[in-house]
């Protein structure tokens, strides 16, 4: 039970990577705060954790809204007495299209969620982590921030910003015993697919084309990301900070 007596917030917890990491943290003993703008989804994930003997609380949170993120941290520390881990995972992609055709409103939306959401999550969590004597911040970036692909240039740039923020913040927070790391997944059949393509699932042809670019020959599974995040959040990684771990089956090589 690597996370026994630990309190962890997961944003974007209602589906995909966030759901998988919430469940994994719960299995490994953490008290999990499942936060998502999708309140019903957050409730479903929290209930599932409790049904399996864990401890969880759902919260409806729009990570792009400072007041809501601040209220989330306050609610968590008031109820559970502190905070040990925050996983800034909430994010989405705009539709794949030529850069010059992307509406300004979509640029604003993807930056508000993917970059401002990480900023706000860290900003309001840091005082709580410092009060605990240290802790862990983990951010979901993307292999697109390392090896960009066409059609989602603005999305890629948000993930590049997350990578830089992660590494810089790791240096800034090291004196407070707060570690800051990120994961860089390759494409998975999660909400990203619907955002980027407009389809709920990939066609067989599109799936095969994507898998052909990944040396290990498959897409990322949410469980892959959950395993990586749990490692980075645990004492097994206690000397790792500023790490942006590629969970990509070798695509970045």
Protein architecture, described:
The protein has about 250 residues and is of the alpha/beta class. The chain has one domain (about 5-245): Rossmann fold. It is built from 8 helices and 7 strands, in the order βαβαβαβαβαβαααβ. It has helices spanning about 15-25, 40-50, 65-80, 105-130, 155-175, 190-195, 205-210, 220-235, and strands spanning about 5-10, 30-35, 55-60, 85-90, 135-140, 180-185, 245. It has a 7-stranded parallel β-sheet, with helices on both faces. The protein is globular and about 50 Å long.
Q: Helix and strand layout, with pairings?
A:
Blueprint: E1 7-11, H1 16-27, E2 31-36, H2 39-51, E3 55-60, H3 66-80, E4 85-88, H4 104-131, E5 135-140, H5 153-173, E6 178-185, H6 191-197, H7 204-211, H8 222-233, E7 244-247
Parallel strand pairs: 1-2, 1-4, 2-3, 4-5, 5-6, 6-7
The CATH topology corresponds to: Rossmann fold
Structural class: alpha/beta
Compressed to H and E, one letter per element, the order equals EHEHEHEHEHEHHHE
> In the CATH hierarchy, what is the class?
Alpha Beta
Sheet with the most strands? 7 strands, parallel
The number of strands is 7
The fraction of residues assigned to DSSP E strands is 15-25%
How widely separated are the two ends? 34 Å
Number of helices: 8
Unreliable spans = none
The CATH homologous superfamily name equals: NAD(P)-binding Rossmann-like Domain
Distinctive features:
253 residues; alpha/beta; Rossmann fold; seven-stranded parallel beta sheet; 8 helices; 7 strands; 15% strand; globular
């Amino acid at each position: 039970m690597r996370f026994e007596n630990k309190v962890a917030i997961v944003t974007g917890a209602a589906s995909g990577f966030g759901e998988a990491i919430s469940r994994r943290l719960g299995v490994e003993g953490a008290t999990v705060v499942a936060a998502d703008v999708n309140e019903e989804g957050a409730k479903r994930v929290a209930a599932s954790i409790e049904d399996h003997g864990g401890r969880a609380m759902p919260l409806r949170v729009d990570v792009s809204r400072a007041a809501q993120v601040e209220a989330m941290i306050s609610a968590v520390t008031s109820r559970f007495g502190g905070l040990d881990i925050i996983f800034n995972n909430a994010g989405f992609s705009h539709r794949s299209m030529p850069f010059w055709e992307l509406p300004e409103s979509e640029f604003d939306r993807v930056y508000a969620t993917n970059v401002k959401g990480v900023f706000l999550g860290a900003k309001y969590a840091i005082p709580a982590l410092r009060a605990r004597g240290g802790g862990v911040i983990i951010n979901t970036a993307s292999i697109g921030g390392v090896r960009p692909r066409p059609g989602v240039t603005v999305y890629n740039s948000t993930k590049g910003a997350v990578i830089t923020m992660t590494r810089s913040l790791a240096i800034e927070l090291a004196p407070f015993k707060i570690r800051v790391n990120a994961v860089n997944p390759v494409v998975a059949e999660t909400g990203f697919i619907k955002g980027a393509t407009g389809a709920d699932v990939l066609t067989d042809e599109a799936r095969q084309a994507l898998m052909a670019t990944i040396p290990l020959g498959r897409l990322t599974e949410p469980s892959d990301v959950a395993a990586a995040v749990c490692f980075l959040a645990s004492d097994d990684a206690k000397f790792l900070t500023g790490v942006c771990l590629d969970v990509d089956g070798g695509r970045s090589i």
